[in-house]
Specification:
With about 290 residues, the chain is an alpha/beta fold. It has one domain (about 15-285): Rossmann fold (3-Layer(aba) Sandwich). The protein has 9 helices and 8 strands. The chain has an 8-stranded mixed sheet, sandwiched between helices. α1 (about 25-35) links the parallel β1 (about 15-20) and β2. α3 runs parallel beside α4, α4 crosses α9 (about 270-285) and α5 crosses α9. The mean pLDDT is about 90.
């Protein structure tokens, strides 16, 4: 598996994918690779103009749809017009930004990266026929997740911890959904993936001197390209060998770069009692319940 590359993507003709945040970075590379393999790709993103530029590279198999994960009204609007797909890839996200709130009052990183995707997955699940892939991060290991304070109403805000919280929550969403699908004897699969250290623009929005530090980091040998960073998610989304409930990431350098392989995660992500509490809290905050 660790030698798996874009050339190993099976023929995707006849399959339809929805990718959030497909206007740039990892999502753009996923869309381009899947389009080249023959898939129909829906580029769901807030920046419609940038998404159209990506869609033009793919051709007639690509469509663009407006989706702002930081606004549950936008999530519902997208879901209302959605007519089904084989695979949903929950990819969009923000990283290490100053404290801000979504349209619904959620802390922006938790609201965009996790709660927006939780709501989207719940609304679309009945019309996804095969797989749901949710992007996490190595930074989930830096989380100090407080299920009772997801929106940082009581804690002193730390942008990096908030990012880690959102990525741990994404991982727990994928793992909990996988168990619920298995218990329901559903043929659908839920998996998580992370890109390792991929050089993208995601790190460039801290609005602090860290932007320059991250820019320099992207030029070091530790960082791999966005194309390579997209491989674990593409493996999960297309390989007949990808398994329900697995977490895929780069194999080398402590998970920072290399071909896709099964990745380890913090013990708390496997704690089903905590996952259920998080799930219940997400349903409470978003008003979305899952029909698994």
């Amino acid at each position: 598996m660790s030698g798996w590359s874009i050339s190993d993507i099976p023929d995707q003709r006849g399959r339809r994918f929805v990718i959030t945040g497909a206007n740039s970075g990892l999502g753009e590379q996923m869309a381009l690779a899947l389009g080249a393999a023959g898939a129909e790709v829906v580029l769901a993103a807030r920046n419609v103009e940038k998404s159209r530029l990506v869609a033009e590279q793919i051709g007639p198999n690509a469509t663009v749809a407006a989706l702002d994960l930081a606004d549950l009204a936008s999530v519902r609007g997208f879901a209302d017009s959605f007519d089904g797909a084989d695979v949903l890839i929950n990819n969009a996200g923000v990283m290490a930004i100053p404290l801000r709130r979504t349209a619904d009052g959620f802390e922006m990183q938790m609201g965009t990266n996790f709660l927006g995707h939780f709501a989207l997955t719940g609304l679309l699940l009945g019309r996804i026929t095969e797989r749901v892939i949710t992007m996490s991060s190595l930074m989930h290991k830096q989380s100090r997740l407080d299920v009772d304070d997801l929106n940082w109403d009581r804690r002193k805000y730390n942008r990096w911890t908030a990012y880690g919280d959102s990525k741990l929550a994404d991982l727990m969403l994928a793992l909990e959904l996988a168990e619920r699908l298995a218990e329901a004897e559903s043929p659908k699969l839920s998996m998580a993936a992370h890109p390792g250290y991929a050089a993208t623009d995601l790190q460039m929005h801290t609005e602090s001197p860290l932007d320059w530090v991250m820019r320099l980091g992207n030029l070091t040998p530790l960082a791999q390209s966005a194309t390579d960073g997209a491989l674990p998610a593409l493996f999960a989304a297309t390989s007949p060998h990808a398994a329900n409930g697995e977490y895929y990431g780069p194999k080398g350098l402590g998970g920072m770069r290399g071909g896709p392989a099964v990745s380890g995660y913090r013990r708390v992500a496997g704690d089903r009692a905590v996952r259920r509490r998080l799930w219940d809290k997400a349903e409470e905050l978003t008003g979305i319940t899952f029909d698994v």
